[in-house]
């Protein structure tokens, strides 16, 4: 897309891509002073002013006399060709209209506002004649950090002096006071600080990653290693190499709760804090990060998937940690998988990608098998830690009291840990008190008024919550259907109910319940996790939040309450997800010197997936799973897309689905098949009915092109909406 011309004089025609839902760029005249391709601009659109990016020379196919000038060029570095190119390719791949794609890349608050100013302080002239300890400390800090400038507050903290000492030095000319834009660069990172002493395995993997980076060629490496094997230590070496080359690195984490701990590790390794980008970061900070990334004033960014759309000046490396994690798939608005988009962005930027996981996605495993990705393995856990032993508890043989879920065998194992002063984790992937609330008088189950989902009792909050739409209401005392009082009863366990059972079974134990809805902020959660790691709990009761990446050195037992939970339903990815989750949870046990044990409560111990989990024969599992997917022609051996149609009128939704399914000539032309329409995995959300068509095509088929042609004539009526989901999570 390299434009034949990138600089425009006043009055020249330029094409502007706006963030408004229009299906093409619009022509404008370059403003006074001209503009360049990539400039962020404000343009008039009807009576409004909207944000846009100069995309290249104008097309000139409008009535030239009516073309209006650009209002102004915003004060921001122009969007680089690399990012424009990435957005274009990502839009093509995900079949997302360009304006929606551009909105992902322009989420900088206050973009275009003039920078606000503040006072900063840096080294000035000669030291004053009369020196004091306090004065000396200030000058030492400024000396140590070379040319860096600090705010008054920062400098007084770092030197441990009052602000008046600094003001005094300003008067004497030893410190210089300047006006500066608020957006200060991040402190520089030092890639030459020593790493931990790596094991032989780790050192070999780190050397390979460094070598890949130095080659300067784009490419992807799958870094596979059991939990606790030191993947993070290893990829930190790739970050070091990237920094030494003067390039920027992006580390994606699947969970905001993990960032705080990770940032501490980066700081320990490189001597300075990286930039942090996710929904919990303040607007002012985001604005600063966005600008600094563009200027190279931020070298390492740690963030959520949206960080993929930041305007890096020279991106050298993207790490996708826990690359198998399904939260990398954005399921709202623009539907994309951050792992795949990372590979796409790196390809255009000439950067390297490292996909790290103990339990890779089948996609990445297959790409490594096919030789498309390099693969590095860390086989052993670091230090004395060994992988936990895994065993099934056959629930058919266990005698349980009604409405209890901790089997006698599991109780015994927990008791033994309590006596040894070690921690246990009880894992159940269900938030709330009970998944179902039923009326014992009439059999009514309380559902959400707006969704095809049950309301889940959250007893700690004394409310019912819909996990689809977030709707909440107070826990009723009478049945909303029959009006009988006192007959509503919980059915099945959620994490809160399990905690109740554990409290009764182990009255002497200190319990900690970890579930995303029980913590107001990422900080509160981080503190809780640190407390647990330090030994402040005997039994941890958690949802999948605890399965991800946390380090609990005293934890030696993992009890999975319902290992069969993920195997229900017809989703072809169920086996893969259960395998990953179970191995991941089990990996929480025995991370330090103490050996771990994982016990899986199951009613089907002979199920092939359960057997594979227990035996730990990963390669065997992947090969069997791959063979099944190959036979079914589904990803990663075939291509799929989902078309989700939604609307308030169910008949209209189905009519459109059926019409599309009948008129499938463009799809048949590439040998693709359409299945459905059928109710979508969540059939009603917020009062809107949802149906889905699934499209299956051969691996190399031009699926996106065919879908575009198929949907081109479509005009949506009323409140009907249609979303295309390339590579859906469930099929
Ligand atoms: P992973 O990312 O594979 O789960 P980590 O990199 O988090 O593993 O390592 C697990 C723990 O072991 C961490 O506390 C880490 O600091 C420690 N560790 C790993 N390798 C080394 C090493 N070579 N020297 C010292 N500590 C190490
Ligand atoms: Zn709902």
Automatic annotation (TrEMBL):
Keyword Plastid included in the entry's annotation: no
Cofactor note: Binds 2 zinc ions per subunit.
Classification via Pfam families: DEAD, PriA_3primeBD, PriA_C, Zn_ribbon_PriA
Record: residues binding Zn(2+) 2: 448, 451, 466, 469
GO BP annotation list: DNA recombination; DNA replication initiation; DNA replication, synthesis of primer; double-strand break repair
GO CC annotations on file: primosome complex
Catalytic reaction equation(s): ATP + H2O = ADP + phosphate + H(+); Couples ATP hydrolysis with the unwinding of duplex DNA by translocating in the 3'-5' direction
Biological role stated in the UniProt entry: Initiates the restart of stalled replication forks, which reloads the replicative helicase on sites other than the origin of replication. Recognizes and binds to abandoned replication forks and remodels them to uncover a helicase loading site. Promotes assembly of the primosome at these replication forks.
Name of the protein in its database record: Replication restart protein PriA
Protein's organism: Pseudodonghicola xiamenensis
């Amino acid at each position: 897309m390299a434009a034949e011309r990138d600089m425009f004089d006043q009055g020249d025609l330029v094409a502007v891509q706006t963030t408004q839902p229009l299906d093409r760029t619009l022509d404008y005249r370059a403003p006074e002073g001209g503009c360049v391709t990539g400039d962020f601009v404000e343009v008039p659109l009807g009576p409004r002013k909207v944000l846009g990016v100069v995309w290249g020379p104008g097309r000139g196919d409008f009535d030239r006399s009516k073309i209006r000038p650009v209002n102004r060029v915003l004060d921001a570095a122009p969007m680089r060709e690399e990012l424009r190119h990435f957005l274009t390719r990502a839009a093509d791949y995900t079949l997302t209209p360009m304006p929606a794609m551009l909105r992902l890349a322009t989420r900088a608050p206050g973009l275009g506002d003039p920078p606000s100013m503040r006072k900063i302080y840096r080294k000035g002239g000669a030291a004053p004649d009369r020196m004091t300890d306090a004065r000396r400390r200030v000058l030492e800090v400024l000396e140590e950090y070379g040319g860096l400038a600090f705010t008054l507050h920062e400098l007084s903290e770092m030197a441990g002096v009052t602000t008046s000492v600094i003001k005094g030095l300003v008067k004497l000319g030893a410190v210089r006071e300047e006006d500066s834009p608020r957006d200060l660069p991040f402190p520089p990172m030092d890639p030459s600080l020593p790493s931990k002493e790596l094991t032989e395995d780790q050192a070999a993997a780190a050397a390979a990653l460094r070598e890949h980076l130095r080659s300067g060629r784009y490419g992807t490496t799958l870094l596979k290693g059991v939990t606790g094997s030191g993947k993070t230590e290893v990829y930190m070496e790739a970050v070091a190499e990237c920094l030494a080359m003067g390039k920027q690195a992006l580390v994606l984490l699947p969970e905001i709760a993990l960032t705080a701990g990770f940032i501490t590790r980066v700081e320990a390794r490189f001597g300075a804090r990286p930039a942090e980008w996710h929904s919990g970061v303040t607007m002012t900070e985001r604005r600063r990060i966005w600008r600094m990334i563009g200027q190279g004033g931020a070298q390492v960014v740690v963030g959520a998937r949206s960080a993929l759309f930041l305007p890096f000046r020279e991106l050298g490396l993207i790490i996708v940690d826990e690359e198998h994690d399904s939260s990398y798939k954005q399921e709202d608005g623009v539907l994309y998988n951050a792992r795949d988009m990372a590979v796409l962005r790196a390809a255009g930027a000439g950067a390297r990608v490292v996909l790290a996981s103990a339990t890779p996605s089948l996609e990445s495993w297959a790409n490594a098998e096919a030789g498309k990705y390099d693969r590095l393995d860390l086989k052993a856990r670091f230090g004395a830690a060994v992988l936990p032993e895994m065993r099934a508890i056959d629930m058919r043989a266990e005698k349980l009291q009604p409405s209890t879920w901790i089997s006698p065998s599991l109780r015994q194992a927990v008791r033994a840990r309590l006596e040894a002063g070690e921690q246990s984790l009880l894992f159940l992937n269900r938030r709330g008190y009970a998944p179902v609330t039923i009326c014992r008088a009439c059999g009514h189950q309380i559902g959400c008024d707006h969704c095809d989902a049950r309301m889940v009792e959250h007893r700690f909050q004394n409310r019912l919550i819909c996990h689809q739409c977030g709707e909440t209401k107070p826990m009723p005392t009478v049945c909303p259907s029959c009006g009988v009082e006192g007959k509503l009863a919980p059915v099945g366990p959620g994490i809160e109910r399990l905690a109740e059972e554990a409290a009764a079974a182990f009255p002497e134990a200190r319990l900690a319940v970890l579930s995303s809805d029980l913590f107001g902020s990422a900080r509160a959660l981080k503190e809780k996790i640190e407390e647990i790691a330090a030994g402040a709990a005997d039994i941890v009761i958690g949802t999948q939040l605890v399965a991800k990446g946390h380090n609990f050195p005293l934890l030696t037992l993992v009890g999975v309450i319902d290992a069969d939970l993920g195997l229900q339903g017809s989703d072809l990815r169920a086996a893969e997800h259960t395998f990953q989750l179970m191995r991941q949870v089990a990996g929480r046990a025995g991370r330090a010197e103490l050996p771990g044990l994982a016990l899986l409560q199951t009613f089907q111990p002979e199920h092939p997936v359960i057997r594979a989990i227990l035996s730990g024969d990963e390669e065997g599992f992947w090969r069997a799973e791959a063979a099944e997917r190959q036979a079914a022609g589904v990803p990663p051996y075939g291509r799929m897309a989902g078309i989700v149609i939604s609307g308030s009128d169910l008949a209209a939704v189905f009519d459109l689905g059926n019409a599309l399914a009948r008129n499938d000539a463009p799809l048949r032309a590439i040998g693709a098949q359409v299945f459905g329409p059928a109710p979508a995995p969540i059939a009603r959300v917020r009062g809107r009915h949802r149906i889905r068509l699934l499209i299956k095509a051969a691996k190399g088929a031009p699926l996106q092109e065919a879908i575009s042609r198929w949907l081109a004539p479509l005009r949506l009526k009323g409140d009907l909406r249609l979303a295309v989901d390339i590579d859906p999570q469930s099929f």
